TrEMBL record:
Reaction catalyzed: (4aS,6R)-4a-hydroxy-L-erythro-5,6,7,8-tetrahydrobiopterin = (6R)-L-erythro-6,7-dihydrobiopterin + H2O
tRNA processing listed as a keyword: no
Organism of provenance: Brevibacterium picturae
Name under which the protein is recorded: Putative pterin-4-alpha-carbinolamine dehydratase
Keywords: Lyase
Length: 227
């Protein structure tokens, strides 16, 4: 396989990058830190290691951890060079005594049900300072500055006749998609059900599960499909 060929979720899983998980596209790792200076030193070490590679990750630094996201934007997916970079970053983390926290990894998306995605996408792009792009069938919203971590996309309304809404529910145009790693999905679903949620459908599992809150508002737990 070529160095720049986009890997499938199964190929990423088989690569066995232990600290990393795929969410909605890229692979991501979060390393816990005891204080801000420790995280800053880790970020600087990553910067020195990738300075000459012309393939840098996206990094979020907080006082409790460093989150690193890796993908090949030029081909729109994860490639072998991302796997190589992920392993390099894991080595730097191990040398710094940092531990990966895979259980807390998450990515959220907001989905709008609409029959006119072409008509509304420009409005939301202007509202949020982004630009619509054709990643999903109906497009999605891309923030070129990288500040909007929550993705926005649109889909055609689905037929809910098979799973009618409870009387307490109001018509719903928006729903939340929560991406977690493949090995965290069942635990997140169990927690949501224990908190009063209800499983609407698991027919699309292990790609996604449809849940609803106690008032009937729906959301999805999503995970990359492997094997």
């Amino acid at each position: 396989m070529g160095h720049d060929a986009v890997l499938t979720s199964s190929q990423i899983f088989d690569a066995d990058v232990e600290d990393w998980r795929q969410l909605a596209g890229p692979i991501r790792a979060r390393f816990r830190t005891d204080e801000f200076g420790q995280g800053l030193a880790f970020v600087n070490a990553i910067g020195e290691a990738v300075e000459l590679s012309n393939h840098a990750p996206d990094i979020t630094l907080t006082k409790t951890g460093v989150t690193v996201t890796v993908s090949s934007h030029d081909v729109g997916g994860v490639t072998d060079r991302d796997i190589t970079l992920a392993r390099k970053i894991s080595t730097i983390a191990a040398e710094a005594g940092l531990t990966a926290d895979t259980a807390s990894l998450m990515q959220a998306e907001l989905a709008l049900d609409t029959n006119s995605s072409d008509r509304v996408s420009d409005f939301y792009a202007a509202l949020l300072g982004g630009q619509p792009a054709g990643v999903h069938a109906g497009g999605d919203l891309v923030d070129p500055t990288g500040q909007m971590n929550t993705l926005l996309w649109w889909q055609r309304p689905r037929d809910d006749s098979q799973f009618p809404l409870p009387e307490s529910a109001v018509p719903q145009s928006w729903h939340l998609d929560v991406w977690v790693s493949h090995d965290e999905a069942e635990g997140r679903i169990a927690a949501a059900l224990a908190a009063g949620g209800h499983l609407v459908s698991d027919t699309a599992a292990p790609s996604y599960w449809v849940l609803e809150d106690p008032d009937g508002n729906r959301a999805c737990i999503c995970a990359p499909m492997v094997h």
